[in-house]
């Protein structure tokens, strides 16, 4: 039996300012730091001590995992980082105020991109300083593999590739895994694990700092889902 613990990072500085974040590498706010520590308390209280930690390459997810594991006095485990767990790339909407974008594009387009399945934000154009290829973190990757604006569908493709190659084999070995990632990269994973349709995923919001636990058998058949912060199973 392997447990998959999904944890959305605590509130970031951009979440606090109501800005689209995507691949922008902003840190946690004070509130986000507290949420990450509280997540550690919840995990410890429920004996959810992971064998391996996975995070994205973005510091809000990395710091959330570190703060939670520190709170648990469980810092000895390996933490494997992959850009494939990064947040959905929000294209030209990155760094812009969400209310201003909603006003500019209208409610329907805003919600189609933000919570729909196959609508992408407008992509970043050549020369834009926000392109991932301008960030030294990604310079050893093939620039053509780096997104410039992703739908949830595109995000799901890269997240599921990584899940299949790196996460699923450990789960099948019965390991308990912490995945510290992002609202939309985790929505993509939840959609696949729970077999949700594009219409159903529209309604799914992942709360910051609140672990969601999936328990699998060794054939990766899902046995149950738990929300330890809510003290109930659903
Ligand atoms: O800005 C973002 O990258 C995401 C997550 O914070 O925003 P939203 O929840 O609006 O998709």
TrEMBL record:
Tell me the domain of life: Bacteria
Annotated segments matching region Disordered? 116-149
Report the enzyme's class at the first EC level. isomerase
Pathway-wise, it operates in: Carbohydrate degradation; glycolysis; pyruvate from D-glyceraldehyde 3-phosphate: step 3/5
The entry's substrate-binding residues are 8-15, 21-22, 60, 87-90, 98, 114-115, 183-184
**Documented EC number(s):** 5.4.2.11
Kindly list any coiled-coil regions of this protein.
none
Instruction: Decide whether keyword Cell cycle is in the record.
Output: no
Write out the entry's keywords from A to Z: Gluconeogenesis, Glycolysis, Isomerase
Alphabetized InterPro entries for the sequence: His_Pase_superF_clade-1, His_PPase_superfam, PG/BPGM_mutase_AS, Phosphogly_mut1
Ranges of biased composition (kind: Basic and acidic residues): 127-142
Q: Residues at site: Transition state stabilizer?
A: 182
Q: Which residues form the active site?
A: 9, 87
Reaction catalysed? (2R)-2-phosphoglycerate = (2R)-3-phosphoglycerate
Task: Give the stretches traversing the membrane.
Answer: none
Q: What does this protein do?
A: Catalyzes the interconversion of 2-phosphoglycerate and 3-phosphoglycerate.
Its family?
Belongs to the phosphoglycerate mutase family. BPG-dependent PGAM subfamily.
Q: What is this protein called?
A: 2,3-bisphosphoglycerate-dependent phosphoglycerate mutase
Q: What is the lineage of its organism?
A: Bacteria, Pseudomonadati, Campylobacterota, Epsilonproteobacteria, Campylobacterales
Which gene name belongs to this protein? gpmA
């Amino acid at each position: 039996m392997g447990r998959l613990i999904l944890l959305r990072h605590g509130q970031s500085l951009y979440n606090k300012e109501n800005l689209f974040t995507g691949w922008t590498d902003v840190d946690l706010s004070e509130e986000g730091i507290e949420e990450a520590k509280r997540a550690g308390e919840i995990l410890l209280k429920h004996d959810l001590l992971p064998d391996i930690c996975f995070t994205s390459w973005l510091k809000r997810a990395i710091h959330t995992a570190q703060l939670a594991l520190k709170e648990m006095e469980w810092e000895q485990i390996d933490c494997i980082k992959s850009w494939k767990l990064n947040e959905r790339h929000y294209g030209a909407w990155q760094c812009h105020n969400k209310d201003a974008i909603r006003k500019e594009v209208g409610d329907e387009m805003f919600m189609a991109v933000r919570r729909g399945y196959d609508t992408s934000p407008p992509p970043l154009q050549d020369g834009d300083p926000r392109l991932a290829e301008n960030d030294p973190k990604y310079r050893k990757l093939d620039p053509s593999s780096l997104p410039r604006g992703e739908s949830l569908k595109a995000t799901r493709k890269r997240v599921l590739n990584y899940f299949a190659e790196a996460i699923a084999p450990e789960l099948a070995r019965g390991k308990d895994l912490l995945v510290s990632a992002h609202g939309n990269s985790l929505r993509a994973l939840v959609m696949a694990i729970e077999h949700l349709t594009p219409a159903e995923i529209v309604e799914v919001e992942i709360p910051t700092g609140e672990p969601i636990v999936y328990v699998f058998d060794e054939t990766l058949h899902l046995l149950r889902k738990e929300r330890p912060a809510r003290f109930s199973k659903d």
